[in-house]
């Protein structure tokens, strides 16, 4: 600890006035401002008063520390030990005037250490500056208790003025706050009116939307019903035409001329195409009307793949195309076997139809709790902007030429419906020239 700036002893009541005065002088000398000078001076005189009441002298030391945080310390000692813990209570109020206050109350007597930081504006406490302060304080001529009383009065008046100014400030702030509150309330009301209006609009919009979706559903149901009825009605006559054609060209019937045979074949060909269109339409209408109920069961994928390999092999006639149905990496899953086989057959038939060379491959793998089937081909591919359109009824990519058989444009919409019924999704990834990959994701165990 550095050498104190000043030591003083309090022996009698007038010394309390003196030490108060000196306290203010020291505070001023180390660079404290007016209010802080008064605070420290008041704290010292209070502690001095309490110590003097014991009937014994008190020693006061003023120490300035120039460490990282320049601080003024005041150490006050009194040889009387009160040792009842009451000293701390007596001085509790005084502690509020300084930054830190420690009260040591033991057998050797009482020590009170107080500190207050110096403002940043205070001049630096170099050793020379400290010596200057010591000299200045030594030369200080103390005033009489009356002088000190006058100074105290001045300080009291200043403090009162400040309290009054603070009270006025508070009143002004309160008025401003009230004004702001009124503004906020007005804004709030306006906002809640606007919100109510907007909500009303949204509710009306939703009602309209609901109505439209009901209309849409009704229209779609009517369409499905119409398709189902028409195709059902068409099936019987078309089947009859095919049968009659077969009868006419039968060897046991009357012989036909070559031209007649050719025309009968044309009729049979057209009728067969028509029948497959009618059948596709009927399937799709049934799926759309929600009349297909999946029959869930534990399905052996090895068996399904084996069957697909067998039934589609005859379609894969081109030697330039390697047709592979891989051994399934997932042995079994819960789904509807017939619907699953129908979807995969549909995708594989398409792939074979649109692939002139390269390969057509079916694989399956597990992805999380899903089973993912992929049909990959190196065929013509489909432009990105048509990836959704090919799932629309009757849509066929303009200029796309099937290498075998004529399509109806109903295969993919039907496949997507079925996958939906099985709780999964069907998507395509393709680009012209690079081939296509159709992916069917199905839950391995539908809930
Ligand atoms: P379809 O095959 O009976 O014409 P789909 O609904 O199955 O009807 O397919 C719609 C159209 O999508 C096809 O006409 C074809 O243009 C295109 N397409 C489908 N699969 C493929 C494929 N693997 N490669 C190229 N184009 C395809």
Keywords:
12 strands, Heat Shock Protein 90, 447 residues, alpha+beta, 10 helices, Helix Hairpins, binds adenosine-5'-diphosphate, 3 domains
CATH homologous superfamily assignment of the largest domain: Histidine kinase-like ATPase, C-terminal domain
Roughly how many Å apart are the termini?
Answer: 80 Å
CATH architecture type of the largest domain: 2-Layer Sandwich
Task: Give the strand tally.
Answer: 12
* Count of folded domains: 3
Low-pLDDT parts are none
Mean of residue pLDDT values: 89
**How much helicity do the residues have?**
40-55%
Shape: rod-shaped
Strand content: 15-25%
SSE pattern, N- to C-terminal: EHHEEHHEEHHHEHEEHEEHEE
Helix tally?
10
Give a short account of the largest sheet: 5 strands, antiparallel
Please tell me about this protein's structure:
This protein is of the alpha+beta class. It folds into 3 domains: 6-143, Heat Shock Protein 90 (2-Layer Sandwich), CATH 3.30.565.10; 162-291, Helix Hairpins, CATH 1.10.287; 297-443, 2-Layer Sandwich (Heat Shock Protein 90). Helices cover 52% and strands 19% of the residues. The protein contains 10 helices and 12 strands. It has helices at residues 13-29, 34-52, 86-90, 92-95, 127-138, 145-248, 258-288, 301-312, 337-353, 411-421; strands at residues 6-10, 58-65, 71-78, 100-106, 109-117, 297-300, 321-325, 332-335, 358-367, 370-377, 425-431, 435-443. The protein has a 5-stranded antiparallel β-sheet. Strands 7-9-10-12-11 form a 5-stranded mixed β-sheet. β11 and β12 (435-443) form a beta hairpin. The protein is rod-shaped, with a radius of gyration of 51 Å. The protein binds adenosine-5'-diphosphate (ADP).
């Amino acid at each position: 600890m550095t050498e104190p700036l000043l030591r003083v002893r309090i022996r009698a009541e007038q010394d309390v006035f003196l030490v108060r005065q000196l306290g203010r002088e020291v505070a001023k000398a180390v660079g404290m401002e007016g209010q802080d000078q008064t605070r420290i001076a008041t704290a010292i005189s209070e502690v001095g008063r309490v110590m003097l009441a014991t009937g014994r002298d008190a020693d006061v030391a003023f120490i300035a520390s120039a460490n990282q945080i320049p601080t003024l310390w005041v150490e006050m000692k009194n040889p009387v030990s009160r040792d009842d813990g009451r000293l701390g209570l007596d001085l509790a109020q005084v502690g509020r005037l300084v930054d830190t206050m420690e009260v040591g109350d033991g057998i050797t007597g009482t020590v009170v250490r107080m500190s207050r930081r110096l403002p940043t504006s205070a001049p630096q406490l170099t050793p020379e500056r400290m010596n200057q302060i010591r000299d200045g304080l030594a030369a200080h001529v103390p005033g009489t208790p009356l002088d000190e009383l006058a100074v105290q009065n001045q300080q009291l008046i200043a403090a009162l003025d400040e309290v009054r100014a603070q009270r006025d400030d508070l009143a002004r702030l309160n008025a401003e706050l009230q004004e702001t509150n009124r503004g906020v309330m007005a804004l709030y009301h306006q906002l809640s009116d606007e919100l109510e209006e907007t909500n009303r609009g949204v509710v009306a919009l939703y009602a309209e939307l609901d109505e439209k979706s009901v209309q849409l559903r009704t229209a779609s149901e009517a369409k499905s019903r119409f398709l189902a009825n028409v195709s059902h009605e068409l099936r019987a006559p078309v089947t009859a035409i095919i049968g009659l054609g077969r009868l006419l060209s039968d060897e046991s019937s009357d012989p036909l001329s070559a031209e007649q045979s050719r025309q009968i074949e044309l009729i049979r060909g057209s009728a067969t195409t028509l029948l497959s269109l009618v059948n596709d339409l009927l399937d799709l209408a049934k799926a759309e009307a929600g009349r297909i109920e999946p029959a869930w069961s534990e399905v052996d994928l090895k068996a399904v793949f084996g069957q697909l390999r067998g039934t589609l092999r005859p379609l894969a006639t081109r030697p330039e195309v390697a047709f592979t149905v891989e051994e399934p990496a997932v042995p079994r899953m819960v789904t509807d076997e017939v619907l699953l086989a129908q979807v995969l057959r549909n995708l594989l038939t398409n792939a074979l139809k649109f692939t002139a060379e390269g390969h057509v491959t079916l694989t399956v793998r597990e992805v999380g709790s899903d089973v993912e089937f992929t049909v990959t081909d190196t065929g013509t591919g489909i432009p990105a902007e048509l990836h959704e359109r090919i799932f629309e009824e009757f849509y066929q990519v303009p200029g796309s030429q099937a290498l075998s058989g004529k399509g109806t444009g109903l295969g993919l919409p039907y496949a997507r419906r079925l996958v939906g019924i099985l709780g999964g999704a069907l998507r395509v990834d393709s680009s012209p020239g690079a081939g296509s990959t159709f992916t069917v994701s199905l839950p391995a165990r539908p809930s």
